[in-house]
Amino acid sequence: MSGKDPYKNRVELLQGTLDMLILQTLQWGPQHGYGIVQALRLRSGDVLQVETGSLYPALHRLERQGWVQSEWKQSESRQKARYYRITAKGKKQLASDLGRWERIVEAIGSVMYVKPEESES
Amino acid sequence: MRGFPSFGFQRRKREFEEEIDAHLQMAIADRVARGETAESARQAAEREFGNVPLVQDVTRDMWGQGWLEQLGRDLRYAFRQLRKSPGFTITAIAMLAVAICANSTVFSWIDGTMLRPIPGARDTGALVSLQRGVRNLSPTPPFSYLDYRDLREQNHTLDGILAYHHDWITLTGGAQPERVYIANVSANYFDVLGIQPMLGRFFLPEEESHPAIPSVVLGYSLWKTRYAADPAIVGKAIEIARHPVTVIGVAPEGVTGAMPGLREDLWVTLDPLGTEVRRMTNRGAVWLNVIGRLRSGVSRGQAAQDLDTVMRHLVAAYPDEHLGDNQITLDPMWCSPFGANGYVASTLPILLAFAAVVLLLTCANVATLALVRFVSRRRELAIRQSLGANRMQLVRQMVMEGVVLSIVAGAVALVLTSWTSKTFEWFFPANSNPLILNGSMDHKVVIGIAVFSLLAGLLCGALPAWRSSHAPAAEVLKAESASVSGGSRNRKLLSALVVAQIALSLPLLLCSALFLRTLRNLAVANPGFEQDHVLTASVGTNIVGYSPDEERLIRHKILDRVSALPGAKVASFTDWVPMTLSHKGVDAWPEGYVPRPHESLEVYHCDVGPRYFESLHIPIVEGREFTLDDDEKAPRVLIVDQTAARRYWPGQDPLGKKLRVYGSLYTVVGVARNSTHIFVNESREPMVYMSFFQGGYETIVQVETEGNPADLAPVVENTIHAIDQRLPVFDVRPLRESTQVASSLAAIQSALAGIFALIGLVLAVTGIYGVVAYRTQMRTHEIGIRMALGASRGNVLRLVLSQGLWLTGIGLALGLAFALGLTRIIVRLLYGIGAHDPVTVASVVVLLGAMSLVACYFPAQRAMRRNPVSAIREL
């Protein structure tokens, strides 16, 4: 069993981040898969290019966990598409994800930006 | 075997395809809006999206957490693994299919006989057959009509109670006379059985005895074959033994009457012509079989007590008609002594137990093979474990392989059983009863096969899987070659499986050997009469409607002409053939004999003509045989056998003593040597022979022949037909052939036990061969070193052999203990041999031991011949 845990943690870290990004995107209104990709790219200034091979598994998993709901609707360009909407449960999850993310960023930041003299004392 | 077909899965798959399509369409639309051409936009969008099947696959994994999808994946994995080793797969499936088929075949026979005792009847579980007196496996009909009616009217525990009596009769009036099995039944017969007519109606209460118009109900197959399925048959008259009778109804398809294993073709009421006065009014005339339907909530014991009370009152009121034991016993139809189930129930469950042992044995064998396979897959399993598969998952997947094997084997067995279930009737040689014994293939058998295969799958999958999943991954990956033989734990399990196979096959071998000896003993046993040069032929003088004078004349003509045939030594008459599962009973009161309390005075009897004993080579030890002069005008005479003489007149001269039968006095004129009546291993019952010309009802011509009796059969048949073309002649066959039916159960037992034992032997021997060969191969390296260090070939041979012989020894010891315990359940089925017969036990042990030795010798010899240098190199 000892070989299993590091592997699992790595996956969870990545998943958690993508989940948070998706949930955050849906905060601004229901969106379809293509829309989410576009939104993330725009908001991140073309830095975050989400792979479909990660996005769709994540969306379907979030739906199974009850954090998002989906329904088929016509888009503005009259294309029928599956729209995902964040649920109350999803909003709670987003808040907790965000809290964790901030703590991690803070922790990593305090490691990375530590002043040399402080670390020596 | 892609995708586990489930509705939800397919729908989600389709929906996801649409989702991806929408994604692509929107991407293309955006690019076109930005000024790209449609074609280049499409290509770019697809490139950007990536590998569609891959995305589908990883996304589907997200849904795949339902148990159904998981099962589907395990199943696919199992199929892949099994396809990789076709040798193992085919061997295992073949072995399991044979073992499952053995079980389902016996079960289908049980299903067709014991579980469906009365085809077409409603809730046969509530039906019970009534027996009066000592319980006995081949009872005669136990009740008189008046007793039956009193039981019917005075009981408080039965919803209904029916009575019937059946016999052969001839349908006349058509182009061809046809011999059929007719039943005289109480008017409520079909009501109690819970059967509705297919056409017309069944009998009314007032028609039970001597109705104004005699009426008949036709069986479905008779209506179909003889009356061309005439839809307007109801109301038409047909002719039975030259009497016109009106058809009032037709029974539905499959209904064959109330006696398990026998086929009734048509039904009339108890006394349709008003000619059976004695049978309808005399309590001494015992001729009815009786079946009751328990009231709901009433147990069999309560009903028996209730009926017994009624019977006790009848015995007190009419003591002369109720000698002997009159206790009422009730039997459920699945083991009712009336009909075939009494015999079947004593044999088939035991054979099913044997088949179960074969299945266990096969599972042990397949488990051995699976274990060896898992051992060689240790690396693969270890890698998967270190990649995060947990132990439960691994076990589940390995068990799934066993389950897949057994399900495929079950399917094969299903196909095989649909044929083997019909082979039951092969065991019953032609005989004079309308037997309809056969296996049936219905939902119960299919469920049975499913249960057998799942059990087998779990047994041969779970054990090795659990064992193999134990291996600590790191060690396996590290110590690759040094411990490749699979660790001591697997070795122990392998050894245990081999021991189990030998221990299970020994009882099978022992039982089959005992059955075979029994069959042989039965075949060579002397029944006390000549079987080999005798031909019998039934002539329907009583069923075509002759007057008594016509019948007497015809009988004499037959006797004269058949006697004169070249090749015929002696011709005689009888109304019964010994050892054909039938007998006739009658109450006989010996004068001057004081019966013990509750002693039954019922004796076997038959009517035989002059020279009967001569033709069968039964010696008359005192007095004389019947002659032609012992006819209706002469004083009534009879011949008793030694059992009757010793019981009724011990130490006295039986000649001249008198017996009262049917209300008349008969004088004993001879004593015949004892001979077999029904079974070779029966307990002796008194037999009373009466003179054929003083009362014979059925006519059976019995001819002692010079040569092969079968050669004379057509001549005898033609001779009788030449006397009167209308005379039905049937059941013409050598006596040896007729008496074979008496040992048909022994034949079934030894045939099946023999097949099972053979399977067991092959499995045990291949099992031990496989394990010893495998382990020797794994030790090639070690053996090479030993030889290089100076071990002789003899040493190597001993090393390998001793290993196999140890296992064999333990297996034989355990098996012997098991076998000696198990033979106790077959004691009652044996004849002329003890259940622990030392010679049989010893020869079986030696046979199994010798076969195991041979199985161990081959791998040992191979190991001995190896070149040590190449053996060391080989890892």
Defining key terms:
heterodimer; A: 121 residues; alpha+beta; Arc Repressor Mutant, subunit A; three-stranded antiparallel β-sheet; 5 helices; 64% helix; disordered N terminus; B: 875 residues; 4 domains; six-stranded mixed barrel; six-stranded mixed beta barrel; 21 strands; globular
| Overall tally of domains of chain A | 1
* β-strand amount of chain B: 5-15%
Give the end-to-end Cα distance of chain A, rounded to a whole number of Å. Answer: 40 Å
Q: Count every helix of chain B, treating DSSP H or I runs of 4 or more residues as helices.
A: 26
Strand residues, percent of chain A: 5-15%
Give a verbal description of the structure.
The complex is a heterodimer of chains A (121) and B (875). Helix content of chain A is 64%, strand content 13%. Chain A is α+β, with helices and mostly antiparallel strands. Chain A has one domain: Arc Repressor Mutant, subunit A, CATH 1.10.10.10. Chain A has a 3-stranded antiparallel β-sheet. In chain A, a hairpin with a 5-residue loop joins strand 2 and strand 3. In chain A, 25% of the residues are buried. The N terminus of chain A is likely disordered. Chain B is of the alpha+beta class and 875 residues long. Chain B folds into 4 domains: 57 residues; 212 residues, no CATH class; 303 residues, no CATH class; 187 residues, no CATH class. Chain B has 26 helices and 21 strands. In chain B, strands 2-3-8-5-7-6 form a 6-stranded mixed β-barrel. In chain B, strands 13-14-19-16-18-17 form a 6-stranded mixed β-barrel. In chain B, helix 5 packs antiparallel against helix 11, helix 5 runs antiparallel to helix 14 and helix 16 crosses helix 25. The N terminus of chain B is likely disordered. The chains are: A alpha+beta (121), B alpha+beta (875). Chains A and B meet through helix 2, helix 3 and strand 3 of A and helix 1 and helix 3 of B.
Write the layout of secondary structure elements.
The complex is a heterodimer of chains A (about 120) and B (about 900).
Chain A (H helix, E strand, L loop, with lengths): L4 H23 L3 E2 H11 L8 H14 L2 E7 L5 E7 L1 H25 L3 H5 L1
Antiparallel strand pairs in A: 1-3, 2-3
Chain B lengths: L6 H27 L4 H12 L2 H12 L3 H18 L1 H28 L13 E6 L12 H10 L3 E15 L5 E8 L3 H5 L5 E2 L14 E4 L1 H6 L11 E4 L2 E8 L15 E4 L7 H5 L7 E6 L5 H18 L10 E5 L8 H36 L1 H9 L4 H30 L22 H26 L4 H6 L8 H38 L9 E6 L8 H16 L4 E7 L10 E6 L11 E7 L3 H5 L3 E4 L13 E5 H7 L9 E4 L2 E9 L14 E5 L7 E7 L3 H15 L5 E6 H5 L4 H35 L1 H9 L4 H30 L15 H28 L2 H6 L2
Helix pairs in contact in B: 1-2, 4-13, 5-11, 5-13, 5-14, 6-10, 11-14, 11-16, 11-22, 13-14, 16-22, 16-24, 16-25, 17-20, 22-24, 22-25, 24-25
